[in-house]
């Protein structure tokens, strides 16, 4: 069975780890190898050049989480991390002091940047760094071309340009997504998001094939705007999703009207979507009426939303959506696959 997953960083990573666990527990081959193949199509809109290095936050969140190297407590980066190099960089006045790159993490960025400068594509560099971690899944960047999400904010107090920003004198300013997210904690109201480089981008090798050739496509509980939303804007991806024979099952990143973790509500409000499982489901839309989804998984606490969603033509199931352990995430992934199996039957 070929399972293709659209994913952002932390939510995507937890879901993918659960999916891998579910398959290991339920399939005889035990490794998700011959009997199940997982391909993750990962958002690269948050990527940036920082102190001469290409940083890919979402790819690395997934790689470290599935590689067992992530800092579970902090939720991002490597465990057992130190920050000696970052401290030195701050002394030299380069980089973003509020965007710490740990010493071990820098090893990944140096390797990736080295490979890119040798002329390898991001897909090739990703395959190279991922190989070390024996992830048991295939990691694909959504595109080999740089597509960077910038946030346009209104008026005073906006970014000073930083390493990648573009401060203007007018009423609106823009900054790289990571500056808005990490430095300002998404506290500056976003006017809109811009994907720079999108026109020159295409889906990375294997992405369209994974969607068209998949038996199931899962949309991870990731940020609907700046993770999943960005993946969907890459030329070629939307039409592959429209044309695939595979059922497309999405998992809500919103539970009881709140983003489980982080500031996703600030992204949703910028595009006029309420922070609610039904609003996000309707934003993705039912495939039958030109949208993305064949089915939508919401949390049990949101089961009151089912009738309204069904009326809108969306097939919805209520299951526990909290991924606060690998076992819970595995059960959630199992529920998504069960729904896909029903749709295929
Ligand atoms: P990022 O790139 O690191 O921001 O991560 P993602 O785009 O993958 O997703 C972040 C989102 O995942 C958060 O805003 C939450 O809405 C969602 N999320 C995180 N943990 C959970 C969980 O346990 N259950 C569900 N359903 N969603 C979660
Ligand atoms: Ca991200």
TrEMBL record:
What domain of life?
A: Bacteria
- InterPro entries for the chain: CofD, CofD-like_dom_sf, FbiA/CofD
| EC number of this enzyme | 2.7.8.28
- Is this entry keyworded Transferase? yes
One MF annotation (Gene Ontology) recorded for this entry: LPPG:FO 2-phospho-L-lactate transferase activity
**Which terms are listed as keywords in the entry?**
Magnesium, Transferase
Q: Which Gene3D superfamilies does the entry mention?
A: CofD-like domain, CofD-like domains
PANTHER family per the UniProt record, alphabetical: 2-PHOSPHO-L-LACTATE TRANSFERASE
For this entry, the protein name equals 2-phospho-L-lactate transferase
């Amino acid at each position: 069975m070929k399972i293709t997953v659209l994913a952002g960083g932390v939510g995507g990573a937890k879901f993918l780890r659960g999916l891998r666990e579910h398959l290991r527990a339920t399939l005889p081959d035990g490794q998700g190898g011959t009997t199940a193949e997982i391909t993750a199509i990962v958002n690269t809109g948050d990527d940036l050049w920082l102190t001469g290095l290409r940083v890919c936050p979402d790819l690395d969140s997934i790689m470290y989480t599935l590689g067992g190297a992530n800092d579970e407590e902090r939720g991002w980066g490597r465990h057992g991390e130190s920050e000696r190099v970052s401290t030195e960089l701050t002394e030299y006045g380069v980089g973003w002091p509020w965007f710490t790159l740990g010493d071990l993490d820098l090893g990944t960025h140096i390797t990736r940047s080295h490979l890119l400068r040798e002329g390898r594509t991001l897909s090739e560099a990703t395959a190279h760094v991922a190989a070390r971690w024996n992830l048991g899944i295939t990691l694909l960047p959504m595109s080999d071309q740089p597509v960077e999400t910038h946030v346009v904010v209104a008026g005073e107090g906006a970014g000073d340009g930083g390493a990648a920003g573009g401060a203007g004198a007018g009423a609106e300013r823009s900054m790289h997504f990571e500056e808005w997210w990490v430095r300002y904690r998404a506290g500056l109201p976003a006017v809109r998001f811009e994907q720079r480089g999108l026109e020159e981008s295409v889906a990375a090798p294997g992405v369209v094939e994974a969607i068209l050739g998949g038996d199931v496509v899962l949309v991870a509980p990731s940020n609907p705007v700046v993770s999943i939303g960005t993946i969907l804007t890459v030329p070629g991806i939307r039409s592959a999703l429209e044309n695939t024979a595979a059922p497309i099952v999405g998992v809500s990143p919103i539970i009881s009207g709140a983003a489980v973790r982080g500031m996703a509500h600030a992204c949703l409000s910028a595009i006029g979507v309420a922070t609610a499982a039904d609003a996000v489901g309707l934003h993705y839309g039912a495939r039958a009426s030109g949208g993305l989804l064949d089915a939508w998984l919401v949390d049990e606490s949101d089961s009151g939303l089912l009738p309204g969603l069904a009326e809108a033509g969306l097939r919805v199931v209520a299951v526990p959506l909290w991924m606060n352990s690998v076992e819970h995430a595995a059960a959630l992934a199992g529920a998504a696959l069960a729904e896909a199996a029903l749709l295929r039957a």
